[in-house]
């Protein structure tokens, strides 16, 4: 049997003893990330009954699970990920690479010209271990998500995206400010302290 590295042992130990992991198992969510969205939503009231939204980078589906419950019968949740995702009632899912035009066209045809109230994005690239490369890949995905949001959100719509603090962060924040009236940061309790992840919330699309 392979010997676990110290870092993977630490991760496993943290995961096993993680309050939010236990809560997710108890509440039926597919990942602890559900609580990040629930906490942000409690503060900012982004998802309400009737909200029409897109979840970019949705797998394994915990954000879509939260969204589907909150939008109710009159709302709609569209989800997209390169990875497969098991069905969720009330969620329309397309599997494909967000960077490919053909996949985006397929997703847009699913939207059927409806403008969205909200775009949420908890995407992260496959980490290579090279901090510079990973940061660049992460912001490339974030830029694509911002382009998608600026094109498909209705005026006054909102955009919630995960970013990693570091190179490119200030530039991305500036790009968001061109699209949204206000841009705020959110660091939910369910986000691990040691993680450089932070959520940017663009409110009120121009």
TrEMBL record:
Q: Where in the cell is it found?
A: Cytoplasm
Q: Which GO terms describe its molecular function?
A: rRNA (uridine-2'-O-)-methyltransferase activity
State which Enzyme Commission number(s) the record gives.
Answer: 2.1.1.166
- One Pfam assignment: FtsJ
- Which Gene3D superfamilies did the record assign? Vaccinia Virus protein VP39
**Domain Ribosomal RNA methyltransferase FtsJ spans what residues?**
29-205
What reaction does this catalyse?
Answer: uridine(2552) in 23S rRNA + S-adenosyl-L-methionine = 2'-O-methyluridine(2552) in 23S rRNA + S-adenosyl-L-homocysteine + H(+)
| Keyword terms, alphabetized | Cell cycle, Cell division, Cytoplasm, Methyltransferase, rRNA processing, S-adenosyl-L-methionine, Transferase
Q: Which GO terms describe its biological process?
A: cell division
At the top level of its lineage, which domain of life is listed?
Bacteria
> For this UniProt entry, what's an example GO CC term?
cytoplasm
**What are the positions of the active site?**
162 (proton acceptor)
Q: Mainly localized where?
A: cytoplasm
InterPro entries reported for this sequence: RNA_methyltr_RlmE, RNA_MeTrfase_FtsJ_dom, rRNA-MeTfrase_E, SAM-dependent_MTases_sf
Q: Which residues bind S-adenosyl-L-methionine?
A: 61, 63, 81, 97, 122
Function statement: Specifically methylates the uridine in position 2552 of 23S rRNA at the 2'-O position of the ribose in the fully assembled 50S ribosomal subunit.
Q: Which family does it belong to?
A: Belongs to the class I-like SAM-binding methyltransferase superfamily. RNA methyltransferase RlmE family.
Q: What is this protein called?
A: Ribosomal RNA large subunit methyltransferase E
Show the taxonomic lineage.
Bacteria, Pseudomonadati, Pseudomonadota, Betaproteobacteria, Neisseriales
């Amino acid at each position: 049997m392979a010997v676990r590295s110290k870092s993977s042992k630490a991760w496993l130990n943290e995961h096993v003893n993680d309050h939010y992991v236990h809560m997710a198992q108890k509440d039926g969510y597919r990942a602890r990330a559900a609580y990040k969205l629930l906490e942000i939503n409690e503060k900012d009231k982004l998802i309400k009954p009737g909200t029409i939204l897109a979840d970019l980078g949705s797998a394994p589906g915990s954000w879509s699970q939260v969204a589907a419950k909150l939008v109710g019968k009159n709302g709609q949740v569209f989800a997209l990920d390169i990875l497969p995702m098991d069905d969720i009632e009330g969620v329309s899912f397309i599997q494909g690479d967000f960077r490919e035009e053909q996949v985006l066209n397929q997703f847009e045809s699913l939207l059927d010209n409806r403008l969205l109230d909200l775009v949420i994005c908890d995407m992260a690239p496959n980490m290579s271990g090279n901090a510079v490369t990973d940061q660049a890949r992460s912001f490339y995905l974030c830029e694509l998500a911002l382009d998608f949001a600026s094109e498909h959100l209705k005026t006054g719509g909102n955009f919630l995206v995960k970013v990693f603090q570091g190179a490119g962060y200030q530039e991305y924040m500036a790009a968001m400010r061109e699209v949204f009236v206000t841009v705020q940061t959110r660091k939910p309790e369910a986000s691990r302290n040691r993680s450089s992840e932070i959520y940017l919330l663009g409110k009120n699309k121009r």
